[in-house]
From TrEMBL, chain A:
Molecular-function annotations in GO: transmembrane transporter activity
Family recorded in the similarity comment: Belongs to the binding-protein-dependent transport system permease family. LivHM subfamily.
Gene Ontology terms describing biological process: amino acid transport
Localization, UniProt: Cell membrane
Protein name: Branched-chain amino acid ABC transporter permease
Primary location group: membrane
GO CC term, one of those recorded: plasma membrane
Origin species: Mesorhizobium zhangyense
Record keywords, A-Z: Amino-acid transport, Cell membrane, Membrane, Transmembrane, Transmembrane helix, Transport
Transmembrane spans: 12-38, 58-79, 91-114, 134-156, 177-202, 222-244, 251-275
TrEMBL record, chain B:
Keyword match Hydrolase: no
Any Pfam family matching the protein: Peripla_BP_6
Protein name, UniProt field: Transporter substrate-binding protein
Record-stated family: Belongs to the leucine-binding protein family.
Domain of life: Bacteria
A GO biological-process term: amino acid transport
Keyword Signal among record annotations: yes
InterPro entries, A to Z: Leu-bd (IPR028081), Leu_Ile_Val-bd (IPR000709), Peripla_BP_I (IPR028082), TAT_signal (IPR006311)
Leucine-binding protein domain sequence ranges: 31-369
Keyword field: Amino-acid transport, Signal, Transport
Amino acid sequence: MDFAVVVTVEILHSIAVLVLISSGLAVIFGMMRVINLAHGEFLTLGGYVAILGHRSGLNLYFCMLVLAPVVVGLWGLIVERLVVRWLYGRLINTMLATWGLSLAMTGAFSMIFGNTMTGIPNPLSGLTVGNYQIGGYSLFLIAAAALVMLVIYIVLKATRAGLIARGAMQRPDMAQAFGLNISHVYMTTFAAGAALSGLAGALLAPLVGLSPGSGANYIAKAFITVISGGASVVTGTIASAGLFGSISQIFTLVTSSVGGEIALLVAAVVLLRLMPVGITGRFFKGWT
Amino acid sequence: MINRRHFLATTAAMAGALSLPSILRAQSGDPIKLGSILDVSGIFDAYGKPMDMAATLAVEELNAAGGLLGRQIEKVSYDTQSDMALYTQFAQQLVRSDKVHVVHGGILSASREAIRPTLRKANVPYFYNVLYEGGVCDRNIVCTGITPAQQIEVLIPAAIEKFGKKVYVLAADYNYGQITAKWMSHYVGENGGEVLATEFFPLDVSDFGATIAKIQEAKPDLVLSALVGGAHLSFYRQWAASGMKDRIPLASSTLGSGNEHLVLTPQEGNGIMVAYSWSPSIDIPANKAFLDKWKTRFGDVATINEFAVNNYQGIHLWAEAVKKANTVDHDPVIEALESGIGIDGPSGKIAIDPQTHHAVLDMQLMEIRDQSLSVIKSFSQRQPIDTQKFCDLKANPDDNKQYEIDI
């Protein structure tokens, strides 16, 4: 029984990590159809901001939950104004531009932080469940991921800003006809997506440590999750992260960590063969 | 009467004689080239950076003492950036365009196996100065780091006696981890213990949540780790964060060799048992002199690690052999190395075993305490008996393979 609790927490943890690393991409790619190949570096930037803030004596939670999203959000704003906004609707060009950005950012990280592994100590101690121990930080990540999903859902569903964003993404021409400044809506949405990536990167930093190339470890999984999720930001991300997180963690437990990775990728291939437009393209249509 | 054969022979001899002075001139003037090939950046830089500093120190020291054979030593270095593909490329460059006289370097066993054939073919002596899984049998290579028979054989009985007989093994998924895990279960068996499970991890894995759950389910008395590199360091963080560190003790064949105990907090590192050949607290003149020199040259002695000391000693062993052979040429240097050559290094007396080209050296059983390695017990002059089981370069000088233990 206790072991079941431990395994459940591990599976939820694995789902939470997928939700976190793909939520920013779900907004930028899922909503805006912009393929941001620098997504991994946005995550890494969030991690570095949190580490630097913590080292300069700021509270770790403030750095992770406030500072990192704000800084990466502003960075996203700059990137959108300077690069991405000239390329809307030009898929290949956006890919090339953001790939270049990703290489430049990796290079900049190496120059500033050195091509080395940096980490911050884990802030939470473990919890005892019967005869077992679970990481306190795992529970924190699970809660954070749930909160992120909830906030995105509320913003999109229940606020005027969310309504405008959804409207502008679905029918930009109509939104413009109603007198909305489409360009500003795109800018804000991109910055919001970047801020979510920054938050995710900062939250993962205490768990795994950071190197300039860390982003590459996440980008494939983030894209797989978002593409398999389909059009709906919240439902899609939760559905595909839930599926892939469970599959990879169960296979890791039964076989090895290599087995888990293979199972995740095989599951993604099979799923996209059966549902080319993602889970929410087939089920939960019209959900947010 | 001059026939054609006679004519050819005389001209050849004359040409040889004419070219002789230029060779002599080269020997007295040109520097001796020492190739160094290490991961000074990337996820293995914790090992590579101090090794490179140690090489610089050793070369500067030799040069300050007048060089070797009256010639200065020039260090030709390449940074392989923790990328195994760059090793072969830079090794080719070292032998073809730089024309070095010796190569010191390689960190991961994968990198050693990548460049060993190139250097053997090019007749350039190769020093691999890193602790590894043992078994390499090749007359062109000298392995000055510790091997399982020196390290695991010291570590496991002590760990089993202190913590218990049921063992869970975690290892990196490449030749070092695979072979070391075999040696671990060999010595666990020899000491009456039992290996409950062995798990391997690719070098970029950094999420160990599921493994930690599995370990809890298996309930071992002891976890043995042969995890490697920056990504695997997350294991120790996550292990401590889940509160397991106070429940199941750890022993490792790799932790601390890259100064990981300085990166981990005391709560994460305290109590982990390790065994290496060097400790800053070894109380001998050679170690004190080494620490002083390092301090003067680089400032912080906390950067020194096992690999740095190995590299430093490797270069000095080679220098001893060159002095003894009175040349940097391949065959005489190898023969000099096989004459039972030895030095007093920072880790104590270290000698080359002629049969295997491995090192005979002292070992220290240690425990991580407040971010330092504190010695529990010392072991004197341990032979590389693992490699000696399979390898006899005196009987089979043309041998060229890495032997593995069969279990």
